[in-house]
Amino acid sequence: KKPFGLGGRTKYEGGSVGGTMAATQMARFKSREYLDLVKSIGECKSKIEEDAIMKNEVVYLKRRLADPKLDKSKLREYLLRLLYVELLGHDASFGHIHAVKLCSDASLTNKKVAYLTTCLFLSEESELLILLMNTMKSDLHSDNYLVVCASLDTVCQLATEDAVPLILPSIKELLTHGKDIVRKKATMALLRFFLKAPHLVPDYGAMCRKVLCDHDPSVMGAALCALHEAVKRNAASFKNLVKSLLHVLTQIVDRRLPKTYDNHRAPAPFLQIKILKMLALLGQGDKAASSQMHPVLIACLKSANSGTGIGNALVYECVRTAIAIHPDAQLLTASAAVVAHFLNSSHAGVAATAANNLKYVALDALGGIVQIDPSYGERHQLAVIDCLEDPDETLKKKTLELLYRMTTTENVEIVVDKMLTFLEQTSDEHIRADVATRVSELAERYAPDNHWFIDTMNRVFELAGDLVRPELADDLMQLIAEGTGDSREADTELRRSAVESYIDLLGSGKPKMPKLLLAIVAWVLGEYGTLCLSPTEVMDTLAGIGRRQDCEDSVRAFVLTALCKVCCAQGGTGGPTAEADAFVSKMLASRNLDLQQRAVEFRTMMACPADLRQAAMPADASCEEVESDSLAALDAFVSQALANGAAPYIGIDLRDDSALSSSLSQPQGDALRYDNYEQPETASGAQRQGQMGGEMFTSSMGGIQPLESLISGPGQGEGGHDQPPPVQDPSKPQLNISGPRKWGRPAPQPQAPPAAPEPVRYAEEPVLVQADPQPYAEQPVASEEFADPAEMSEKQRLAASLFGGGGRAARRQGG
Fold it and tell me: What distance separates the 2 farthest-apart alpha carbons in the chain?
């Protein structure tokens, strides 16, 4: 088990481990040993010293906890000392049982310490939890609400699916407890049960609706958390909650909650965020519900824009909600204005790190807005270009994701070029794999021509290497083989350009190349290398690929096949060069069986007649399907098989499937049987009394349910039809099919949708906030139109290429 993190740090890490805990426990625990332990841990200068102290402490605690006359106050102290042992990464399992036993103590202090240490010591899989269930259930009915709270805390941490039927009735009663803290913790325990076993809490939605009407804001906040999980799983059942949630959100925005819930002048921001997340789920695809949300969201957006960190988080959540629900022009305009403010945060005197964080959030939000209305992206094109040129890799990657969503046939070349530049600069493998996948998708979807696609994919294979999916290599080879389809000359020119690009790539002198790229090069040279080189040069080039240090066995297999194609393509009369023959001879002694087989096939093919070689390896026939109307070459083999007793071939139109299945179901000698086993006959009482030994055992098994019925379930027989259950003799001993209880984690139960409860009537109708007609007047962007195309800067020309705004402005002025 990994140690829990401490609030402080050890001294050699820049802090003190036990300083805070020692200060808080000084007045209560007067033991000098306890205080010396805390002090010695804080004074450690290395991990070795700390481990030595903990080993001695473990030996001492084992000896003291074994004393049967140990005082309860001392036991409480030893449990806290065990907590230090556990937190610092040492084994303290020998003391877990003492924490569980102390939970049943009558003292409130001992009980709270025991429950605390139990939550930190045990996990959901611990076998000691079964000893704790009855104690927790009895403490839930205690008259002291502090005892109830301690028990509820443990339920929220350690309750499993097996504990739900036992404790759920007590939790339902506590939802109406007189203390607000008990009601809040009971709501969180109910959420725990729903997350562990939703099928065991059928009325979960109704209970959450009831708690949502609680007069205490803390209980209402707990109910919001519980409702959010239910809405995430089935939003359709909670559509009638929109009005109530808007009413609660309006009250929060109007600052009707106590000041204690404010955070940096934002009224209850975490409750607002939870409500906004639920509104985003409930408003998807619902125009009527979304129309009720629009004015409240505008008011929330206006009040949240305070410039603080929590205010920015609220603004971002409002924008995400506006994107998720049915769109509204006024709400989108206000959201875009906030996004523009975030994008320009570096000019507002914000620190560099905070500015990059705001830009990242703005790019993510702008990506959602662009999916609804692409014109918003054109208004902020220069700000997006600034983010693309930022040295922060995370911000640059987020900008590329935004450009990926905005890519069209007009700007695909610019976007892909920027992505390839980023792919060349970054070193993170996960980011490189993601960018390579996005570039390949854009190239396949928006490629202006095949030449550009081939050059782009070669660049991707060269930069990303083995991070590229192998399917992309197959797609590239298929495109080169099929060609454009316009004319034979165009296809030949495409293949010639591919061969030239790969020859230049091999001549660049790079010591290491990805195996996928080498495989593509070997295949292209074998198929179309003679378009630019002589057969001798092609074979020498292929042999050079096979001798490379970075050439793997899978690539050498491509090389051997390519050499065979080149030799057979010369009218069937060509032979391998000296370098190619030496490479093939080396592959004959390879440890790889596939390479040996290909080398042997190469030698055999070279010994065949010229016409057979040319027919076996035709030129430019990789995409052609092999079709043959006559299989006369197999007549001799068929005649020999029939003479040896083989069954003749039956055509598809002449086959009788029913006769075939019936013939298979009939036993033929020692052949396998494909029918089901027969049901055993039930023996009578007289027969059972007259049979002894093995016969008695056989007759007693007559009432066992067949295995097939156990697998298919009750009422399902052969073929899925309903079958009546077998009649069993009640006087005869039966096999217990259910079996004993299996310990361990139970199998997941099928999730049942929560029952649709009756809507809760609220005494007060929601008061919707009437927002100003234009709460956000978006500032004109200077980059939206350009004065003169001749005077464009490099950044403006890049923005015009990416977004198309500058080009249209120039055309309007030119026209």
Answer: 112
Full-model pTM: 0.64
CB of 214 closer than 8 Å to CB of 177: no
How many CB atoms are located within 10 Å of the residue 731 CB? 7
Distance of alpha carbon 688 from alpha carbon 541, whole angstroms? 86
Q: Report CA torsion sign: 742, 746, 751, 754.
A: positive
pLDDT cut 70: percent of the chain above it: 73
Whether the CB-CB separation of 3 and 54 falls below 8 Å is answered with no
Q: How far apart are CA 109 and CA 113, in angstroms?
A: 6
* Chain-centre distance for alpha carbon 607: 55
Cα 495 to chain center, whole Å? 40
pLDDT tens-digit map of 6-54? 333 333 333 344 444 444 444 455 588 889 999 999 999 999 999 999 9
Inter-helix orientation angle 329-343/381-388, to 10°:
40
pLDDT at 308: 84
What is the rounded CA–CA span in Å between residue 181 and residue 71? 32
Model pLDDT, residue 622: 64
Other C-beta atoms lying within 10 Å of the C-beta of residue 92: 25
pLDDT digit string (tens) for 627-660? 656 677 788 888 889 998 888 888 777 776 565 5
The amino acid sitting at 593 is L
**Phi, psi of 326, deg, nearest 5:** -65, 130
Write out the two tokens for 469: 């999916």
**Contacting residues for 696 by C-beta, under 8 A, at least 6 apart:** 688
| Tokens of residue 444, six digits | 């396949």
Indicate the SS3 state at residue 266. Answer: strand
- Is residue 576 within 8 A of residue 606, CB to CB? The reply is yes
DSSP per-residue codes, 611-650: HHHHHHS-TT-TTS----S--GGGHHHHHHHHHTTPPPP-
CA neighbor of 291 nearest in space, from 329, 342, 318: 329
In the numeric block, which tokens belong to residue 479?
A: 């495109």
The letter for the amino acid at 278 is M
Calpha distance 186→172 (Å, rounded):
8
Q: How far is CA 145 from CA 179, 214, 254, 389, 755, in A?
A: 8, 19, 33, 59, 32
Residues in the chain: 815
When computed from its CA atoms, the radius of gyration of the chain, rounded to whole angstroms, is 38
Query: pLDDT at position 437, please?
Result: 87
- For residue 356, give the nearest of 399, 406, 314 by alpha carbon: 399
Q: Which of 164, 197, 284, 168 is nearest to 754 (CA)?
A: 197
Cα separation, 104 vs 154, whole angstroms: 13
The answer to whether 298 and 334 have CB atoms below 8 angstroms apart is yes
Contact 787, 318 (CB under 8 A): no
Question: What is the C-alpha to C-alpha distance for residues 379 and 339, in angstroms, rounded to an integer?
Answer: 11
Assign 708 a pLDDT band (cuts: 50, 70, 90). Answer: very low
Which parts of 169-270 are beta strand (E)?
262-263, 266-267
* SS3 category, 352: helix
Token readout for 798 is 């890049």
CB 149 within 8 A of CB 185: yes
Tell which residue, 200, 209, 198, has the closest CA to residue 239.
209
159 burial level (CB within 10 Å; 0-12, 13-18, 19+): buried
The residue type at 638 = V
